[in-house]
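REQUEST FORM: STRUCTURE PREDICTION
Request ID: SP-0412
Submitted by: Lab K.M.
Chain count: 1
Length (residues): 70
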Amino acid sequence: MSTKDGPAQVGDLPAIGRPATSALMTAGISTLAQVAALSRKELLAMHGVGPKAVRLLEAELEENGLSFAG
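STATUS: Completed
RESULT:
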């Protein structure tokens, strides 16, 4: 799937950009709860997920009382 063909936003995830969203979808991740099960390092290891996407995800997690895995 080309990143331009993928959705800009999935599930309850914030808008983090198409490449990062596609990377999460490919990994079967579509909710904040699933993101919270991962560490920053695991997210950054995904092709398409960069520091900005991780910052946006972290802010959304915090707003929902969640955090990245240890």
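NOTES: The mean pLDDT is 91.
Reviewed by: T.R.
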